[in-house]
């Protein structure tokens, strides 16, 4: 068995939904797109997006002697959804434990097994934690296509999955990109509450509800008043309406399941949230990123400008 086959078998064993491999090289197509996106200010106050421009485009600057980018996807679609009736909404990716930690631990264990079988090799693992253009690499590696909502979509699984990468110095067999299957569909563009999808496959991040509720550290601009659709952390609208997500199957990863409080809280309970309770409910959650003050800012805005 060659190394590429072995890697894909290990990925399946460790619970990854799909695995593809592409050559580690400069992302020539992405360079002008990223530059134009930044120049238009679509990153809002996410100034970190301006940093490490070259590293985002060239994996060899992240891993010395890099030859391959192994792209992986991990399903997070929930078995049980949090009831949205009389409730503020949380993006499905944040139902359970923080995916950064969960998936990075799985990746490290997987690489350890690989090295036991094929010997030492140079690598770094990434889970949305460094200047890596994950969707670009996943597309090149054949995992799916970038849809009109700028998410990676697959015919078989939809788009409710996390992306991760292993950049390594192994020379491997490379996969081919898949074709685009959005066609004339505009479901995501038409459904976006804030018209953040400004054109085909281009999202103005500064108008996105996920940006406003997670990334933005200051007060939420008036532009969002009455458009938040009860989202207190993140937003799933453009994925929920995507026809390909009718094929989403529940994840087998128990760590991504919501805890008791998240399942049973409703608007009144969220409005009375305390710092102590926030720390308990979101102890291992990605929601910690917005902090108690940020989540209460979001909840108070929803109270004041409910639809």
Automatic annotation (TrEMBL):
Binding of tRNA, residues: 217
Binding site for [4Fe-4S] cluster 1: 182, 185, 188, 242
InterPro entries: 4Fe4S_Fe-S-bd (IPR017896), 4Fe4S_Fe_S_CS (IPR017900), QueG (IPR004453), QueG_DUF1730 (IPR013542)
Lineage of origin: Bacteria, Pseudomonadati, Bacteroidota, Flavobacteriia, Flavobacteriales
Residue ranges of every copy of the 4Fe-4S ferredoxin-type domain listed in the record: 173-202
Reactions accelerated catalytically: epoxyqueuosine(34) in tRNA + AH2 = queuosine(34) in tRNA + A + H2O
Organism: Cloacibacterium normanense
Cofactor note: Binds 2 [4Fe-4S] clusters per monomer.
Protein name per Swiss-Prot or TrEMBL: Epoxyqueuosine reductase
EC number(s) given by UniProt: 1.17.99.6
